[in-house]
Amino acid sequence: MVNNSAALRGIPLRDRLLAQCDKREDGCWIWNRTIVQRYGQLRGRGAKLVRAHRASYETFVGEIPDGLCVLHSCDRPLCINPDHLRVGTRAENMAEAAQRGRTARGRLHGFHLHPGSVGRRPNGRFTNSKADQEAT
Fold this sequence. Notes:
Blueprint: H1 5-8, H2 13-19, E1 21-23, E2 29-31, E3 35-36, E4 39-43, E5 49-51, H3 52-60, E6 69-72, E7 85-88, H4 90-99, E8 119-120, E9 126-127, H5 130-135
Antiparallel strand pairs: 1-2, 3-4, 4-5, 6-7, 8-9
């Protein structure tokens, strides 16, 4: 495996993708280079930063139609195996996330969107109840 960025310059994108992942027994090709917000990232064609799974899909499968996402059947954001990737809508992606239990839920759902409505109890736990906030 090549881990030196300078050594990868001039190497075709297909070969760079293969050189920068670990192929696991479960079939996932786990990206092992730069990670940004849970997803692999690399410089694609023209030095543009791209997500590794999108680059893998475009390289091994084909073009990603405008407005579509690349979804993971394996639920691993770092997987770049084209057999685990497919295109779909944002709505499909969110529906799959909810079905697989990967969406925020419960009393803290959305607290980061409205920080003024969430307080902390003396024990450090979050609360979104006005009564709890007034009691502290």
